[in-house]
Amino acid sequence: MSAPSPNDAPAPTPPPADLDAPFTGLRQLLASERGGFKPMVLLWALGVPLPIVLIIALVRGC
């Protein structure tokens, strides 16, 4: 038998899938050096202000 050639080496395994990839943009958007207004973006993203707006609309009778 001959020595194995470099082409017979097993293929390298692919890197593991990045499960956080869909959230990377949101995480970068929320990352702020100053803090400031960015937490409100998270609240809007989670839909917290929507029920508040609906309650105000119902109370005012719009």
Give a structural overview:
This protein has 62 residues and is an all-alpha fold. It has a domain of 27 residues. It contains 3 helices and no strands. The radius of gyration is 26 Å and the shape is rod-shaped. The model has no long low-confidence stretch (mean pLDDT 71).
Quick structural summary:
The chain is mainly α.
Draw up the topology in text.
Layout: H1 24-30, H2 38-46, H3 49-60
In angstroms, what separates the terminal alpha carbons? 87 Å
Rg to the nearest angstrom? 26 Å
Sum up the overall morphology in one term.
rod-shaped
Q: Mean pLDDT across all residues, rounded? A: 71
Largest beta-sheet characterization:
none
- The number of E-state strands comes to 0
The stretches of 5 or more residues where confidence is low (pLDDT under 50) are none
Output the structural class: mainly alpha
Annotation field: number of helices: 3
Helix content: 40-55%
**Topology pattern, helix = H, strand = E:** HHH
Beta-strand content: under 5%
